Amino acid sequence: MIHYPHISGDIDAYEFHAEVALHFHCDDCGEHLECSVLDSDVEAPRPPWATREGRRGMMLGWYVPPLSPDGSLMRGCLCLSCARKRGLEIFRRDEAAA
After folding, report:
1. CB 38 within 8 A of CB 58
2. Separation of alpha carbons 20 and 67, rounded Å
3. Within the chain, what is the greatest distance between any pair of CA atoms?
4. What is the domain extent for residue 19?
5. What is the C-alpha separation between 29 and 47, in angstroms, rounded?
6. 53 lies in some domain
7. Can you point out the beta strands (E) in 9-98?
8. 72 in any annotated domain
């Protein structure tokens, strides 16, 4: 079982995850969230598409670990239900500012 930090990564981690993986797949239960690509998304898989899809995953409660100290994407992803079972939290920008 992978050990995850208590709080997920910020939007940069989610954006990077969307850009590299093109979807969210729960390592525990196998739930899957496909990143949508519209006909107008000529920039996919780069930003702003990756930013939009990363934000969508974050807002839907998916857990993506923080980036490593050198800026690399860390392995793993969890759906909302599995993240809750593990007692993990999703990073919220407004909470970080407080």
Report:
1. no
2. 13
3. 39
4. 13-64
5. 29
6. yes
7. 23-25, 32-34
8. no
| Residue type at 10 in one-letter notation | D
Assigned domain for 57 exists: yes
Q: What is the rounded distance in angstroms from the CA atom of residue 50 to the CA atom of residue 95?
A: 23
Beta strands in 1-98 (DSSP E): 23-25, 32-34
Number of domains in the chain: 1
pLDDT tens per residue across span 12-23: 999 999 999 999
- Burial zone of 49 (CB within 10 Å; 0-12 exposed, 13-18 middle, 19+ buried): buried
Rounded Cα distance between 8 and 40, Å, is 30
pTM: predicted TM-score of the whole model, two decimal places: 0.88
First and final CA of the chain: distance in angstroms? 33
Q: What is the pLDDT of residues 34-57, one digit of tens each?
A: 999 888 888 888 899 999 999 999
Burial class (CB in 10 A: 0-12, 13-18, 19+), 59: exposed
